[in-house]
UniProtKB/TrEMBL annotation:
It comes from Haloferula sargassicola. Residues 165-186 are annotated as: Disordered. Residues 166-175 have a biased composition (Polar residues). This is Uncharacterized protein. It comes from the Bacteria.
Amino acid sequence: MNRTRFIAEMQDVLKELGYQPDPNKRGTLQDVSSARRLGLIWDMNLKMAAGYAKWKAEQDEDLLDEFPAWELTRELGRVEVRDWPAIWAAAGGEFFGEPGPDYPSAPGRMMAMKTDPIWAAISQFGTPWPPFRWGSGMGLTDIDRDEAEELGVVLEDTVQGPLATPFNSGFSQSIKGLPEPSRERLRSEFGDTCRIDGDRIFHQRDTTEANEHRAKTIREELRARARSAVERGEAALERLRREDDAAEALYGSEEADGVRRTYLAQLAAVENGRKGLFHEQITEEAAWPLIEAAREAMPSARVEWKDGHLLAWRPDLDRLSLEELAELSGENPVARNGMLLGYGMESPAALGEEHVLVLLVDGEGNTVSGFHAPLRAARIYAEARLRDLTDGLGPGYDYRIIERKGGGA
C-alpha cells in the first residue's frame, strides 16, 4: 500500500457505497472522496502511528524515571502558526522557566509529566501523542529528571506508572453525508466497539492492557460473543419450556427450531451492537419466552413487547424510547434506511422505491427467514443478516436476492 493506491482504492469504495459530496464542496477538503481529503487522511494516519509508537515506547518504567517530562515544541514551520500557549493555558497547562524560542512572549515553556492528562486535553483527537491538531507542526521533546526537578515540573523521587492506552482509544470521526446503508455497514463490522451519535462515530473499545494485547480481532471477538449469547439463550429457553406452552411452541419441528435459532442469532447481534434494532411482529404470548430468555442471556440489550411488536435494542447505543421505536417499526421499518438493517416485515408498497426480496437459506437451500429491502441497500442488509446467522449459529447459511417487479438485483 502507498499513498496513491490508498486514495484510488478509497475513492472506489466511496463510489460503491453511494457517497455523493456536496456539489459546492466537490474537490475540497470537505469532500471525503477528494484526493486532497484522502491524502490528508493518509498523512495524518502515518503521523498518528509514528506519534503513538514513540509515546508507547516511552511508557516504560526506566525511561519514565530517567526522562519523566515532555516539552511541547515546534518541529515543523507553518505559514499560519496556532497560538499554542493559549491552547495550553485553556486546557489547564502550566508554564515553567523562561520562554523558549518558539513562543518568546509566552509565560514560560509548555512542560508536563509524560502521564499528565494535559497531553490528551490539548489534542483535537483526545489522544496523548502528536499530532495534536490537523496539520500541526508541534512535537514533544524529552526532559531529563534533573532539569524537570530543577524547573518544578516533577517533584523529587516522583514515580510514574506506565499508561496503556490503545492506538484508537477515544477516536471519533465525522460521518456527515455518509449514506445510511454505509453507516449500518460500519455498525455491522465493528459492533459495540463503535458508537454512532448523530453525524459522528466514536471508537469505544475497552482500554485495558489485557484488551490491547488480546489476540482476537474485532470480528473474532464479536463472533465468539454471539455464539456465547445464543448458547445462553438456548439454555434459558430450555428451562422456560418446562413452565410455559408458548416456549414449547419454539420446539418440536424443523420450522420451529429454525425460527428459534434465527431469533436468538439476531438478538445476539443486538447484544453485540452489530444490529441497531431487532423487530418482529408477534403476539405477546409468543413473544414472552423470547423476552425472558433474551433478558437473562443478553443483559446489555433491552427487550420489550409493545403493540404487536417485539423490539430489542441497546439503550447505550440508540437513545430512542420504546414508544419511538414502536412507532417507527409500526409505520415503516425501513424509513430510516437500515436502522433495522432491512429486517422489518413491511410490505413492498411501503418502500416507495425499487425493492427486492432477500431470502436467508440453510445449507440445504431451505428458507429460514426473509425480508424486503430497497434495491440500493439490499446486498449490505443481506450480508449483515447473514453475519447474524453465521456468527450466532455457525457456517452453512447463505442469502439470495430475488428480483421483484419494477426492481432488480
